[in-house]
Amino acid sequence: MKHARLSIVIASLGVATVLSGCNGSSSAGGLAGGVVGGGQDFETAFNAVSQKAPTSDMPTSLKASYEGQMKVGVNSGSAQIFGTDIDANSAEIIGDLAVDVDWTDGQTTNPFTGTASNIVATEAGTSNSVKLDGTLTVDQGLPASLSRTTIPAQVVAGVNIPEQNTGAMLFHMSGRLSSGKNEGDATLQFGGNFMGPGAESMLGPVSGGINDVNNPSPQIFDAGVGGTFYANKK
Predict the structure, then answer these.
(1) 101: closest CA among 136, 143, 64, 69?
(2) Rounded to whole angstroms, how far apart are CA atoms 11 and 148?
(3) Three-class DSSP category at 194
């Protein structure tokens, strides 16, 4: 069953993504061009977060709401959900994120809830766009984690470096999207690092894909996607 294989593969990617942290790039699957949709300009907001230093004072508990955006490009396959007006292999997708965190150090249950909405696909380098109706939600059935790592104080070349406490995260979102009569099941993995003082932002890569609802093909994704996301504490 395709959905079962999808869950297994996504789960296996979890550890690698959270360890990779932020990839430091605002590109979406290597594609260029403007994107219509989302609450604000992605590049400007993403760059502002990526210029922050990684969090060095990660708290031992965190209860906060974050808002931001994701931007991904199709890097393999195609999907009917984009319709006929957009070349699926040149599609960029942007959406608004709202993520809540309720976590205490050592917690093993999923600390994340939230949604991705206002999702729009645009053919790179053009103004051809299509609204993808539907909302993705944090999937409680797929891996999620929030970790705090302490780097002890040390002396390097005669310089005292104080103790640092960094933070990293991993969670998944899934849901059904539609455009007209075309429907697709999307599963996305978000991983990366907390940025700025007091874990004021999140930043990192996004990966996953979309499966056509009525497509019996055996591949994991009808359209594989990859890109980046950011989110700032409200």
Answers:
(1) 64
(2) 21
(3) strand
- Integer CA distances (angstroms), 35 to 69, 82, 116, 121, 184, in order: 12, 14, 16, 8, 20
- Output the six-digit token pair for 21: 């942290």
d(CA 54, CA 69): 19
At position 224, the amino acid (one-letter code) is: G
- Provide the total of helices (H) and of strands (E) in the chain, helices listed first: 2, 12
φ, ψ of residue 81 to 5 degrees: the values are -60, -25
Structure tokens that stand for 209 in this block: 């894909």
Token pair 């199709």 in the structure block, residue: 74
Contact, 35 vs 42, CB < 8 A? yes
Residue 35: closest CA among 135, 178, 131: 131
Which residues lie closer than 8 Å to 108 by C-beta, 6 or more apart? none
Residue 176 identity (one-letter amino acid): R
Mean pLDDT over each residue of the chain, to the nearest integer: 84
Supply 49's token pair. Answer: 């977060």
pLDDT digit string, tens, across residues 76-118? 888 888 887 788 888 899 999 999 999 999 999 999 999 999 9
Q: Which pair of tokens denotes residue 146?
A: 């929030």
**Whose CA is closest to 93, among 75, 116, 70?**
70
